[in-house]
From TrEMBL:
PROSITE patterns: PROKAR_LIPOPROTEIN. GO terms for molecular function: oxidoreductase activity, acting on NAD(P)H. This is Renalase, FAD-dependent amine oxidase. The keyword Membrane does not apply. It holds the Pfam family Amino_oxidase. Keywords: FAD, Flavoprotein, Signal. SUPFAM superfamilies: FAD/NAD(P)-binding domain. Residues 1-16 form the signal peptide. Residues 38-57 are annotated as: Disordered. PANTHER family: RENALASE (PTHR23357:SF1). GO terms for cellular component: extracellular region. Residues 140-326 form the Amine oxidase domain.
Amino acid sequence: MSRVLIVGAGLTGSLCACLLRRELQSKVHIVVWDKSRGAGGRMSTSRSPDPSSHPADLGAQYISATPAYAQSHQSFYSELLAAGVLKPLDCIIEGLKQKDISYNYVTPLGMSSLVKHFLSESGKHTPDCTRRGASWEVKRKVGESETFDAVVLTMPVPQILQLEGDVGPLLSVQQKQQLDGVAYSSRFALALFFPPDAVFSFPWGARYVSESDCIRYIAVDPRKCRSDPAGRGPSMVVHTSVPFGVEHLEEDKEEVKPVILQELYKLLPDLPQPISIKCHKWRYSQVLTTVPDCPGHMTVLNQPPLVCGGDAFTHSNFDGCVESALSLLGALKSSL
């Protein structure tokens, strides 16, 4: 049985793990590691310290399906819809530009439920990967090292380049240049948790903001997902603009939080006071420049397999992550 390590418990990593289990079944033992406390990556759902408030999606807000993948990815959408993980978006979103998007979906149980649907096993570690003959010795920052027959890296590209061990030296000059060229947007996100008796005076479930240099997007999670809060108070998510995120990127998030809040109450002066507030810095929010000439993945070493994937190797949305996971599956099936 081959032991496969997938580093990164976001959508690409979790779906890759799921597809490997389905395709190779008893032939592989799959382990998923992530440095964060929970699964989800940029599809994370944050819970209030007070259980009387609704959870909030700090990262991705909804899933947009593009016509180009309507047929090839239909089985994934059908599976998630049948399981109740996805449902059609059906609320007022002010300022939404449809462009060529055919369908939008929301996750009634939070964005992390989509990742958890595919993921059955996860850890919380950043590895040091060293080649040992026909296998990989991977050491966590705390604890003993483990040996794997294949390693899949699905975290943001800058984190791949920062890995210790043999990963960097194994990259060719061309591969290093390609990875160095990947660019991400950065932004801050606030989650505001309100008491059960909180009332909002506006009708929309989400809104794209054009009149602020600080705030780009606001959403009320129960309204956006049309979910029954079951006696819990609403939650609100605020995303800053990318220029604001870049300007304040190296500042402590707790110092940036009051600046965002001040702007929020200018936009919504009647907003009630929340019970609690969380601030998160998305250093790697969305991919702006992808890896060129890489159809979903990059093979660093054929034997023992070391491959990289994620939305940086396709494009930054659900379909891009699915496309990368399928590409990684093809590469691993031919190597294991």
